[in-house]
Amino acid sequence: MHKIVIPNIYEYIEKIVNQIPPGRVSTFKLIAEALGSKYATRFVSQVIKNLDVPWWRVVNERGEIKNFEQIIRLKRESINISGCKIDLNKYLFRDFSIDKKPLEILRNVQKDLSKRIVLKDDFSEINTIGGVDLSYKKDQAIVVYVILDNKLNLLEKYIFTEKVEFPYIPTFLSFREGEPIIKTFSRIHKPDILFVNGQGIAHPVRLGLASYVGVLLNIPTVGITKKHLYGIIKDNKIFDSYNNLIGFILEKNGKRVYVSPGHRISVNTAKELSENFWIKGNYPEPIRLADEISKKAK
Predict the structure, then answer these.
(1) CA distances (Å), origin 145, targets 108, 137, 181, 192, 277
(2) Do residue 171 and residue 270 come from a single domain?
(3) Each residue of 139-174: pLDDT tens digit?
């Protein structure tokens, strides 16, 4: 049963940054690590000024400051700034107190779910093929599904709007986009296989968006992306750090996609279906249509 509790990351950032005392500074990376993952470093740097925190006490890893207001505020707290730079050896604060790191908790959820992934062809025949993609308008996710027959004719399309509260943090996309997909999936005709615009097992803990959705909905899924997230590439094959094959690079029409199985499908079958379903444009047809419709809906 789907009972994953998604924490409010913004509230955690406020609790962490408010612990930095006057006259001291910390870094975006240390704040991210206090949240539970270094992958949140850029996110912290982007949102911190919009929160109710002493944002001026947070700097980059080099101690550099480019914001004039920040320089003024730090000097008022008796911090010496030389050449727009702070001596972190003297002023760095890193002793944050936080009982449970939210991103660490979510990482453990990913690890637990990854143990349930089936990497074999667990289906009889494919008569209907689904594709799902999301676009955003402020804090609203536009979730688009397409259902195709096995000759890639469009049978149905669905457009839903869901509020999104979890931010974009690399390797945690499942908790941003997976939740809207799971909430709306019961309102469509279930396809035999679902193509997802996101990673499958080509992910640091083998649980990208396609795997997350596949496991929790118990449906065969294939992950398709335009960007490489994780893995060692050799001859258009993607391997994990243990030299296990986890995906492929496909090229067509001058475009490139990264394919990895999500759940209940083998690595080779994920590649074969993606190749067979890639007719035109930037993606295999289920994702190409879903992407096109989601952009128009936005």
Answers:
(1) 29, 17, 9, 13, 16
(2) yes
(3) 899 999 999 999 999 999 999 999 998 999 999 999
3-state secondary structure 5-49: CCCCHHHHHHHHHCCCCCCCEEEHHHHHHHHCCHHHHHHHHHHHH
111 in any annotated domain: no
Check if the beta carbon of residue 287 is closer than 8 Å to that of residue 279. Answer: no
- On whether the CB atoms of residues 71 and 81 are closer than 8 A, the answer is yes
User: Is 153 found in the same domain as 38?
Assistant: no
CATH number at residue 152: 3.30.2170.10
Would you say 265 and 221 are in contact if contact means Cβ atoms under 8 Å apart? yes
Q: What is the CA radius of gyration of the chain?
A: 22
Q: Is the pTM of this model over 0.70?
A: yes
What are the DSSP calls for 260-276, one per residue? EEEESS-HHHHHHHHHH
Could you tell me if residue 7 is left (phi over 0), alpha (psi between -120 and 50 degrees) or otherwise beta? beta
Instruction: Report which secondary-structure segment, H or E, holds 215.
Output: helix 209-217
- pLDDT tens digits, 209-257: 999 999 999 999 999 999 999 999 999 999 999 999 999 999 998 999 9
Domain containing 157: what range?
128-297
Please identify which residue in the block is written with the tokens 């994920």.
270
- Residue 131 to residues 18, 24, 72, 146, 289, Cα–Cα distance (Å): 43, 50, 52, 5, 8
- Separation CA 217–CA 110 (nearest Å): 15
Instruction: Encode pLDDT of 25-52 as tens digits.
Output: 999 999 999 999 999 999 999 999 999 9
242: exposed, middle or buried (Cβ count in 10 Å: 0-12, 13-18, 19+): exposed
* Burial degree of 291 (CB within 10 A; 0-12, 13-18, 19+): buried
Q: Which among 158, 159, 39, 11 has a CA at the least distance from the CA of 110? A: 39
Distances (CA, A) of 243 to 59, 90, 231: 38, 44, 9
